[in-house]
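Researcher: I'd like a structural prediction for the single chain below. Treat it as a standalone chain; there are no partners to consider.
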Amino acid sequence: MEDTRQVTAPEDLHSDLREERKEVVAEADAALAETNAEIAADAQARAHVVVEEAEMWGGVDTSNEKIHEVMTRAMAEIIVREDFEKQLRSGRKLRVKLGIDPTGPLLHIGRSVPLFKLRQLQEMGHQIVLIIGDFTSLVGDASDKDDRRPMLTRDQIEKNMETYKEQIGHILDLDKVEFRYNSQWLAPLNFNDVINLASRFTVAQMIQRENFSDRWDAGKPIGLHEILYPLMQGFDSVAVEADVELGGTDQLFNLMAGRAIQESFGQIPQSVICINMVAGTDGRKMSTSWGNTINMLDEPRDQFGKLMSMSDDMIPVYLESCTRVPMAEVERVRKGIEDGSAHPMDAKKDLAWEIVRIYHGMEAANQARADFERQFQNREMPAEVPVVALDRALGDKADENGEIGILDLLINTGLAPNRKRAQRLVEQGGVRVGEERVTDREHRVKPVEGMVVKVGRSYVRVGD
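Model: Treating it as a single chain, here is the predicted structure.
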């Protein structure tokens, strides 16, 4: 009997399988897109973000001068430059995001660089969105760290945040800032949501980051929670529908993660602005972790003195990045230092005066400058000298004659943290009691009211 059954050719079978796979993939993509939309909508609802189309137009400055300055001043890199310029020229009110983790109570002036860039954009009419990382601070950003960062407690974070708005208010118009706290949308994420976010990246991508690869090669531990940080920062951009995000050059991986996550959630990827990073008092990048900071809330005299101690080549960098001095003046100072027509000491005093004025006002800036000139240029004692009570200066180290060893005196008055440091200061010849230079670590002093003790550039007066 003849067999009339149809035999499917191999190529037809493969074609059928390919079509089935396409259908499965399409269904999976559709399901993922629906899940993403639900997660994004939930996050935006928790962030209280309701952006009406009508609110996104009007009142935006698109002048060439403003656009040029915002794209050049204190700028290191823009991704994607052409897209960002189109955004600025469109007349649309952009949502410009900056995240700040409250890892300490004081903001240093390195943090002012992106804030001044935000001020430029704010004055152009764009919406500034400040993300206070009350949730990401629990993990800590490892972008510039060569070791694991300690995780903070909720109490530490809340205490650190107490003065943030006050400090930021020296630069931004707070009435026009949209403040968001990322615990609103990050805390409610479930484990499935976290896996969903993590699926966008590979372990290799994370480990290849410069600071992680250095730690890996050095055998230093890398916490899994540290690897998750870029996912959280990236999801912040989804929650607030960011058009632009700012950060330092060390933040580039996290900023790019935001672009990738936004795209996977169906949003247009944000433009990325990497701004200049300024050096601290020791020449390294300014960082609270390294203790080389000039803080916004430092006392005016201390702030002025720290700025005067930095290298001359940082003067134009600070003027451009940490002030609103016109760029024409910045370039004049830069050229003057290079060709010798401007004295670096005068330029540095002008810079220090300007920064103290920003955070403490003109009167405090004038006083800080006068104190510096009196103490260091004219070799006079500053107008205001801290007073240490006589009984504190003596402590429990005084003998029957009321005398105390010089090392104990330096410790009791706060001029030295310990005996080892006090001994070094004495041996280096940096200690004076009244007009007498003390170089013998066994020297004994009888503190009396009105006595002035000097260590380097620091003074204390013994009082009642």
